[in-house]
Amino acid sequence: MVINGDSLGFALSSRLERTFLELACKCDAVICCRVTPLQKADVVDLVKRNKKAVTLAVGDGANDVSMIKTAHIGVGISGQEGMQAVLSSDYSIGQFKYLERLLLVHGRWSYLRMCKFLRYFFYKNFAFTLTHFWFAFFCGYSAQSIFDEMSIAAYNLVFTSLPVLAMGVLDQDVDDEYSIKFPQLYLPGQFNRFFNMRIFIYSVLHGIFSSLVIFFVPFGAFSSEMAANGKDVGDLGVMEFTTFTALIIVVSGQMALDTSYWTAINHAFLWGSLAIYFVLCFVIYEALPSSFLSKRGGSLSQGVVLRSMQTPHFWFSILLVCTVLLLPVVLNRFLRLDFRPSFSDRLRCKRKMERHTPKEEVQHRPVIIRRSSTRRSQRDSLRSSYAFSYTQGFGDLILNGMLFN
């Protein structure tokens, strides 16, 4: 559809705007020419109000500012018409050709990373929070926490923050070359297939199930067991340390399984967070004096780390929790890759095969130069370009030889 500014003014009236929108949606493209800046913004606002779609506006001049501000996402192109569009936009590019990389590479990566970040964020916090809820049934609803104060404060701040930050910044399913080469990878983002209500409910249910396993496996291991000397195998402090350790390991393992693109930063943040957790536990509960722990008023006492690790129930609980929660995820990934791989999964496998396949030696064949059967003079073979002015009498400018001076 091609429509000029005068006709667009009638089409955007309250009586005809819905008809114009329905007709425009049936066309492959709509070209609005000779329109005012306000009409540009009205067209974007019409689609924004009536269609469940994310609008994007691209402009390079001051007359595009209102359109850029009206759209969900505004892209400004810095050019000869000034920087007004760039200053009013969300993203700025140097040339229009960079829009392809902005959308197909960086835009798709950003959407994928944000979806993974949200899924993991909901999962790890539901698994952490609901563990307190299950413990309330066995502590007489006395508001006693199953975790130590230090563990509660450092869970989201230290132990699980850096890995998800690295995934939200660096993760990618395929590289930039394949993202541009296969634009159909952009389609799942348009239909919001990576994070929707179904995936949100799955993340919540996954977190609930993980909290059940993380709490009840150590609780069952330490609740009714007795050592050879007649004493209990573990007290509340041992159970708390075992439960929180299982939580940290499972959440970190889930983070590792969700990461598609590994870098040195991902390895350092993920495994470094686990190392920091155990180092802090040994320093606080083994190296510091008991007087410091008594002043803190926590439920964990000095020596709880070594006492927990000396019991087989600790290692059995950690192993059983990891097996129940992580093994099904691993099996699901393998089965999905074998029977129902996505398009990005197939591209990743293709890229890995290309990297591991040795490059064949290129056979140097003689280059055949095709020539025309007719003879051409040397002057005709020279390539020339001409710049024409739109003033009258430009023929005299060519004929008088001024262009060749």
UniProtKB/TrEMBL annotation:
Domain P-type ATPase C-terminal: 86-341
Gene Ontology terms, MF aspect: ATP binding; ATP hydrolysis activity; ATPase-coupled intramembrane lipid transporter activity; metal ion binding
Source species of the chain: Pristionchus mayeri
Domain of life: Eukaryota
Positions in coiled-coil regions: none
Pfam families: PhoLip_ATPase_C
Record GO biological process: Golgi organization; phospholipid translocation
Subcellular location: Membrane
Membrane topology: Multi-pass membrane protein
Main subcellular location of this protein, as a coarse class: membrane
Any one GO CC term of the record: plasma membrane
Keywords for the protein's UniProt record, in alphabetical order: Magnesium, Membrane, Metal-binding, Transmembrane, Transmembrane helix
InterPro entries listed in its UniProt record: ATPase_P-typ_TM_dom_sf, HAD-like_sf, HAD_sf, P_typ_ATPase, P_typ_ATPase_c
The UniProt record lists the keyword Transit peptide: no
Transmembrane feature ranges: 121-144, 150-170, 199-221, 241-257, 269-288, 314-335
Protein name (database record): P-type ATPase C-terminal domain-containing protein
